[in-house]
Amino acid sequence: MPAAPPAPERTLLQSLESMAERAPEEGLSLRAILDQLDESAFGAGLFFLALPCCIPFLYGVPQIVSLPMMALAGQMAAGRELPWMPEKFGQRKIDRNGLTQMAKGGRKWLGWIETFTKPRLTGITGKKSERVVGLFLCVFSASILVPLPMTNTVPGFGVALASFGLINKDGILVILGILVGLAWIFGLVVLGPVALLALIGALKDWLVGFTTS
């Protein structure tokens, strides 16, 4: 009797969808979620944590995951073999509604990655290169903490692309993610002050016009 073919492995998005369906109403801690992903690579943890940052108008969750993202990316840059999360970060919870929104939003905004990615330029995803990638991802994760509207979406998308590329040994996806993140940092550092000065100038003009009218 021929052996039954092995069941196909779940993708990360499929694992998240299944997790959201089975989660209790109060949700799951970040530690429990990462354990259920059954991945030891940094890429899986960073992709999951970046996912809510990529979804427009998903409030609250990005603020829960931004510091743990920095912690994992920093460990990758430091050359750790396995990811570790501080207890105070691991205890943070995402409720079932938040997990469901993440699963639906992830499928909507990032589902295309699963059909696009494949192993290529694998040298970029090696251990030595991974440390450099981790340094970039740490900076991108830190920029999510900037208290400005919509500051989490673009860097979150860059981290998600790069981390998914690490999981699937896709160097092109890693490069694309880094370029997205660098473009955001450039805009934040260079264009941000210019826009702020223009806003201050416009406000001063308005105040002068208001006081003289």
Descriptive notes:
38% of the residues are buried. The protein is built from ten helices and two strands; from the N terminus they run αβααααβααααα. The protein is mostly helical and 213 residues long.
At a glance:
This protein has 213 residues and is mostly helical. Helices cover 69% and strands 2% of the residues.
Q: Trace the largest sheet across and list its strands.
A: 1-2
Q: Could you tell me how far the N terminus lies from the C terminus, measured between alpha carbons in angstroms?
A: 93 Å
The coarse overall form would be: globular
Characterize the biggest β-sheet: 2 strands, antiparallel
Radius of gyration: 20 Å
Instruction: Determine the structural class based on helices, strands and strand pairing.
Output: mainly alpha
Number of strands: 2
The number of helices is 10
The run of helices and strands is: HEHHHHEHHHHH
* % residues in beta strands: under 5%
Helix content: 55-70%
Averaged pLDDT: 79
Stretches where pLDDT is under 50 for at least 5 consecutive residues are: 4-8
